[in-house]
Amino acid sequence: MNKGILVLFLLITSFCFAQRKTENVVLITLDGLRWLELFQGADSAFMRQQKELKDPQLKEKYWRNDLVERRKALLPFFWNTIATKGQLLGNREVGSKVNVTNQMWFSYPGYNEILTGKADDERINSNDKTYNPNTNVLEFLNKQPAYKGKVAAFSSWDVFPHIINDKRSGVYVSTGWNPVTGNTLNEREKMMNLLVQSLPNPLGDVRLDAFTFYYGLEYMKKNKPRVMYFAFDETDDFAHHGEYGAYLNAAHYTDRFIAELWDYLQADTFYKNKTTLLITTDHGRGTNAEDWKHHGKRIAEADQIWFAVLGPDTDPKGEVKQEGQFYQRQVAQTLASFLGYKFPSDQTITDSLPVLKTEAK
Description:
The protein is of the alpha/beta class. It has 15 helices and 12 strands.
């Protein structure tokens, strides 16, 4: 390359990064939430699928004849805030397609692809608690001087310490039904510790998402991490049990958690106008009355997912209606790009999503 061109390229790149406002990123995943509920709202044909967790007011809460109002009723923050100030990708009805590239179509392979920027079907092909051999973007950022010790993850599913490989990466991971520890616990954390050890455990080894969120929020208030990951799980658990009402309620409550998080970020001077949210899911689900409960490579369309992005550097296109094909593997590089880094996914540079304002100019 001509030296003059190289210098110009470096100057332009440096200028773009200098103009970027994002200093912090929060990654959020809603396990197994279908793109259909995100973009079309509740499905009235599935509402009768309520076994033990019945909600007699389900239709009143979430059903609207108008599609736009219906999806707002289910996910008000997504449609009142992200859709006006950020971007939503994955509405296949208008040609915006997002897919996983792994061939497993279930959780661990999906989270591996989200965090490492590539599928690894040879080694990541089960949900077993095996430590991930692949370098993930949280680990990469935790090694950068500006982010060292400022990366954390709060998850409901207790496999995440292995997915993130907390032993190798050094990333702090809070998960499962374990109470938080430390010498500076506040009253809210102490109360949650009492509750998490006292309440019945309806989800087995999976922590209720409310604990995951509020533990994580208190951590943010005290420690001010610059990269934070919330991994919510109830949508997938209730779907597997065929509890469509509980699945909808879990999605709605998580939307409320994200709204509360955004309010906090916009009220705290450390985060205000300097933080980007990147939201997605690990896999899709089937589409008919039985298959919506399941996923995996035998379930058609379980590879279909979605993205949502909100922050000071996101081009505010709202619901992206242009035809386009995007992939789960792009999440890691997108996260790094918001912070001005190129994430080398095992020596392979994956392109980021075209959501940054600097890329649109």
